[in-house]
Write a structure and sequence with these properties.
The structure holds two protein chains of two kinds. Chain A is α+β, with helices and mostly antiparallel strands. In chain A, about 40% of the residues lie in helices and about 25% in strands. Chain A has two domains: about 1-60, no CATH class; about 95-265, Thrombin, subunit H. Chain A has helices at about 1-10, 10-30, 35-60, 65-90, 95-105, 270-285, and strands at about 110-120, 130, 145, 150-155, 160-165, 175-180, 185-190, 195-205, 215, 230-235, 245-250, 260-265. By secondary structure, chain B is mostly helical. Chain B has one domain (about 1-170). The two termini of chain B are about 15 Å apart. Classes of the chains: A alpha+beta, B mainly alpha. The interface of A and B includes residues 17, 24 and 32 of A.
């Protein structure tokens, strides 16, 4: 206390000076517009700076909570984005005329949408794997169609995946006909170009022209009749010279195949039963 | 003592009226405005209590301010001048003087000592004044002509006053 009084006694003029300067600046800011404005804006910006430091510090302290929230939101949005992307792909899927007509023809059948997950190509025995299996109702020997028309036939099924024998496999043989005519043959692939197959056993008296459509005949229980397969690109004689051999440009692009549908034929079981009964009858007759 | 107080009071009034009536209307080259009221602080004897020189500086500055419509500027500047006047006077006063107290003048300090003292105080005052007026030192190059011109003109008038005063006494 004594020291304080001593200090004040010794430096009282400094305090007086500061007071008088304070009064001067008070007058300066109060009565001079320019200095007053400068002071006001400087004080304002200083206050704003302090406020910003405070806000920064506060937001830094809240970072942990914020981080958690952001991560949650991020995961939620990512899942949503994935779902939406899938939905968008289905919604804006490029639908060609062939695809529309194929699905138009198949609207009475139960279609199982599937995605190709494995696709071997440029080999003589190509196989496709789709992500639907027995659990989804896929059975072997069901037809598979895509946007470009016929894809192939289900060969083996697992619980969740199925192996498809596509048209571009030498073992594949699908009963086909030329649109508008009844003559039918079997579609075979010669193992060369991925987009080409040929149709054998077309009678020589059939009037076929280049560019005509080849479609499924419906004689097998696998495909309903009238599903687009491809277009005739050339007509030649078969090896024995008895019939025509039609070169077919396949409608399905096997090099770029993603979305397909499995045709769940409701009558297949019935037809199979008939076949079995016929075989049984044959066997009984022979005995 | 009484005589000194009376004469300083006379100088106070004289410098005040000269400043508001004459010097405030001089703007040489648009830059230099003489501010010889610093002369009053210059004249304060070294025995003046520091609170007194600070207060007198403030009072004279404020009076000048009121009449030039710049409240606070000259008051702040002259207040600071009053604060530093005594240490500066001790710095420039002759060492071999008889008594402790000294009345600053040509007679007691010679021209060189007095003018050094005057230059220091004047430059300080002018600098403070113009810095406060512009309220920024970002454009200090623009401030320099004002400070230099005003300080030079002020010093000219101070020298003239001092010459008159010394001749009369």
């Amino acid at each position: 206390m004594y020291n304080l009084i001593e200090f004040l006694r010794k430096y009282h003029y400094i305090i007086l000076f500061l007071i008088l300067e304070g009064i001067s600046f008070l007058l300066l800011f109060r009565f001079n517009h320019y200095q007053g404005n400068v002071w006001f804006s400087a004080a304002n910006s200083a206050a704003a700076h302090v406020d910003r430091w405070y806000a920064d510090a506060l937001s830094y302290l809240q970072l942990r909570t914020l981080n958690r929230e952001l991560t949650d939101a991020n995961i939620r949005l990512q899942l949503e984005a994935d779902q939406l992307r899938e939905a968008l792909l289905t919604a804006t899927h490029d639908s060609t005329y062939t695809e529309r007509t194929v699905y138009e023809q198949l609207k009475d059948f139960r279609l199982i949408p599937a995605t190709v997950v494995s696709n071997s190509r440029r080999r003589s025995n190509n196989y496709l794997v789709i992500d639907r299996g027995e659990a989804d109702g896929v059975r072997s020997e069901m037809g598979v169609v895509g946007g470009g028309g016929v894809v192939g036939i289900v060969y083996l099924t697992g619980p969740h995946f199925s192996l498809v024998l596509p048209v571009t496999n030498k073992k594949s043989s699908i009963s086909c006909r030329v649109r508008g005519q009844r003559y039918f043959g079997y579609l075979q692939w010669d193992g060369e170009a991925l987009g080409h197959a040929h149709l054998d056993d077309i009678p020589r008296y059939a009037r076929v022209k280049k560019g005509e459509c080849v479609e499924t005949s419906g004689y097998s229980s696998v495909f309903p009749p009238g599903i687009f397969v491809g277009r005739i690109s050339g007509i030649s004689n078969s090896q024995d010279g008895q019939t025509y051999r039609l070169d077919v440009n396949l409608g399905t692009d096997f090099a770029n195949l993603r979305d397909v549908s499995v045709i769940a034929t409701p009558y297949k079981a019935e037809i199979d039963t008939l076949h079995r009964r016929a075989a049984a009858a044959d066997a009984a007759l022979e005995e | 003592m009484i005589q000194t107080v009376l004469s300083r009071t006379g100088w106070f009034v004289l410098l005040f009226f000269l400043q508001i009536l004459v010097f405030n209307h001089i703007h040489l080259f648009g830059y230099a405005t003489p501010m010889p009221y610093v002369y009053f602080i210059l004249l304060l004897p070294s025995s003046t209590p520091r609170w007194a020189s600070i207060s007198l500086g403030f009072a004279l500055g404020l009076l000048v301010d009121i009449f030039t419509n710049t409240p606070g500027m000259a008051a702040a500047a002259l207040c600071l001048t009053g604060l530093v006047s005594q240490p500066l006077l001790n710095l420039f006063a002759p060492r071999d003087r008889e008594d402790d107290a000294i009345l600053p003048s040509v007679a007691t300090m010679k021209w060189t000592g007095f003018m050094k003292y005057a230059v220091c105080l004047t430059v300080l005052h002018c600098t403070t004044f113009f810095v406060i007026e512009s309220f920024t030192i970002r454009n200090w190059q623009d401030l320099l002509p004002y400070i230099a011109g005003s300080a030079a003109l002020t010093l000219l008038f101070i020298a003239a006053f001092e010459m008159l005063r010394s001749r009369r006494s």
